[in-house]
Amino acid sequence: MNFELNDDQQAYIASAKAFSEKELAPHAAHWDAESIFATEALKAAGELGFMGMYTPEAAGGLGMGRLDASLIVEELAKGCTTTAAFLTIHNMAAAMIGKYCQQVVVDEWCPELVMGEKLASYCLTEPGAGSDAGSLRTSAVFDGDAYVVNGSKVFISGAGETDVLVVMTRTADAGPKGVTALLIPADAEGIEYGKKEHKMGWNAQPTRMITFDNVRVPVSNRLGEEGQGFAIAMEGLDGGRINIATCSVGTAQRAIQDATAYVQERKQFDTAIADFQNTQFRLADMLTELVAARQMIRLAASKLDNKDPQATTYCAMAKRFATDVGFTVCNDALQLLGGYGYIKEYPMERYVRDTRVHQILEGTNEIMRVIVGRKLLMDGALEVIQ
Question: Which residues are annotated as catalytic?
Answer without folding.
Answer: 362
